[in-house]
Specification:
Chain B: Its main location: membrane. Chain B: Pfam families: COX1 (PF00115). Chain B: This is Cytochrome c oxidase subunit 1. The complex is a heterodimer of chains A (240) and B (590). Chain A is mainly α. Chain A has seven helices and no strands. In chain A, helix 1 packs antiparallel against helix 2 and helix 2 runs antiparallel to helix 5. The relative contact order of chain A is 0.13. Chain B is globular. Classes of the chains: A mainly alpha (240), B mainly alpha (590). At the A-B interface, helix 1, helix 2 and helix 5 of A face helix 5, helix 6, helix 7 and helix 8 of B.
Amino acid sequence: MTAMLLFLCVIAAIIIWWSAGQGLMSKPWLEVGVATAHGPGDRRDPDQPKLPAQKIGLGVFLAVVGALFTLFISAYLMRVSTQDWWATPVPRLLYVNTGILFASSLCLHWAKVEAVRGRRDQLRTAMLAGLATALAFVTGQVFAWRQLVAAGYTLTDDASTSFFYVITGMHGLHILGGMVALVRTARLVRAEAIVTPRLRLSVELCAIYWHFMLAVWLVLLALFAGWAGSIVAFCQQLIT
Amino acid sequence: MVEASGAGEVIPPAAVEDVELYHPHSWWTRYVFSQDAKVIAIQYSCTAIAIGMVALVLSWLMRIQLAFPGALAFLDAERYFQFITMHGMIMVIYLLTALFLGGFGNYLIPLMVGARDMVFPYANMLSYWLYFVAVLVLVASFFASGGPTGAGWTLYPPQAILSNTPGGQDWGIVLMLVSLIIFIIGFTMGGLNYAVTVLQGRTRGMTLMRMPLTVWGIFTATVMALFAFPALFVACVMMLFDRLAGTSFFMPAIVEMGEQLKHGGGSPILFQHLFWFFGHPEVYIVALPAFGIVSDLISTHARKNIFGYRMMVWAIVIIGALSFVVWAHHMYVSGMNPYFGFFFATTTLIIAVPTALKVYNWTLTLWRGNIHLTLPMLFALAFIVTFVNGGLTGLFLGNVVVDVPLSDTMFVVAHFHMVMGVAPILVIFGAIYHWYPKITGRMLNEGMGQVHFWITFLGAYLIFFPMHYVGLVGVPRRYNEIGETSFVPESVHDLNVFITVMALVVGAAQILFLFNLAWSLRHGRDAGGNPWRATTLEWQTPQTPPAHGNWGRELPVVYRWAYDYSVPGAPEDFIPQNQPGTFPTREAGA
């Protein structure tokens, strides 16, 4: 569970950093009256808009998704350290898929830039490109699975393949879920004549989610390809 | 910085932009597929109480079997295991978690922080309906072939999915896991709401340190749950693969009934780690809201500000953080490295420090307070006593050397029922007696409430105190009957009968409580807007029960903390949070 504890340390650090500005040391029983939007210790302009709730919500959600994948990784690492472990070979197609997901992430970043500039038509192109590349990624993952199955590495073959299918499947499901949001945003682009603030926010949220899923995928790829092996060995030395 | 404002100065309520409220147009969207947090809260609570009654009946049946083995012909060993499993799972997850976070969280958070509704009302609605589906799936397992799973509420593999365990190779375990997965997805939607509403939905002047401790408790528990439930999710998904697809995440090479199973190489201990990484924070996910609520009940009904508010907040947060590094104290008997056990014993005992701090602060709040022995106060006092009692045996069990011999006895059953069963349930009752007037506009009947309280409180002790003794003499748990065993004295059998009779009585008293809930809805005394003369915002709503959108045309503005009771010089013995102005004789450090 070392990986999960490290993850929680990061979360705890974020919470401590955030709460430093929240006046947790104040003495509310002495302080009567109201002057700021956020309370004592807050130096921001009270009328300055806060971060939109949707963005905070996405941030919290990504932390939860991060916890989910970290727990899968924790389980994987615990299983790796036992005797009978044979790593599953990583099909070369996975590297192609990684490139496609990277391109998808770039498209979404482009979409975000266009949304900020307010160029609706370019935004639409970027969104569609992002959607197409995401679809290509998921298809590519399915083909990678089929290659593995054809090579005899089935789901129940051994622990390594089981982990591979379940974790990549879980990542794929999250990409599919993100694509639902992408489709909804793309339809919003079609419905709106100009780039409204609401639309801009939606595009931005999609982009954040996509970058996050790319980062998760890179970690997972490092894990499966064994690049993480040296780190794992190091961690094991730390424990034992 | 906060400026002390003069008595007459009023600040306009701007700061928070209004949530775009969804306005329901039909009966269906108003009461069934409602996006109003208050309606969702009531839906959550009713569903949780309904499924909780099922678990209560199961506990009756188990107690009858323990006192009079064989008295109920249908209750064989398999049924007994199934009842244990469902009783535990329902009570911990589908009742306590859902009621505290889904019920009280939904009702109280928006009202207490001065919001019109949760920030994501649609996700909030989905959260309830997913919970409802999860409950349906769980109930369906009673009617599936082979019945519900009998794996124990911890669902330990490999036995959970072996054919000799009830439901292991039938639908029982599958439905259980699917139900948990749905529950977790639903909870995550709700949890995002509770957390982000506290972060972003607070009204003007409501700083974090002005929030009532109830909100602090629910908020911290929500954040914990958001990070703890994924562990259960991962465990459930992997076990579902083991059961349905034949993978071997948790299944070692195993020979069952002379037959080599196709599994091999999995680690049952891995499941235990994942399960308890969720399971221990779960204890505090239930306890922290209870801590928060009980602080507010005590302060309100003793007419005194909570003692050491800052310490209380910090203690809640510290308990929440520490509870993530104690999970392996549930696994002392799994054959772990002794140093590992030492580490977890230490962290476990450290949690006692902030917890004891809270108990001291509650006691000091009561000290020289103007204590009104109302029903909420009675339940709050009962909670403190019970929590201390249950917590003390926790210190015993937190030590490896004591835990190992006691681990598989009724002592553990008595301990966690005291600390995690009875104590939070007492808070739930107290909270319902406290907030029912706000939810319905009518008071609960006092006489019925008194009878309910004394039977529940004393009865719980008569059930669980003898059970400690039964455990200490070595009676094992998870056995449907102990029969004639040399080390079990005759007195244990008598005690078992006594415990069972008490359990039946206490259970029956809950029916009186439910009757009171229904009866007072129509015949209760009219409550008015603020019957307890409390300071927090939910009592200051323009209508009772609060209307859609909670606050009428303008959001409230908060000028003070939540505990201005008996302020010297103030015209009344409480000052609502949204009342401006200071009072001349107020002293520093009051």
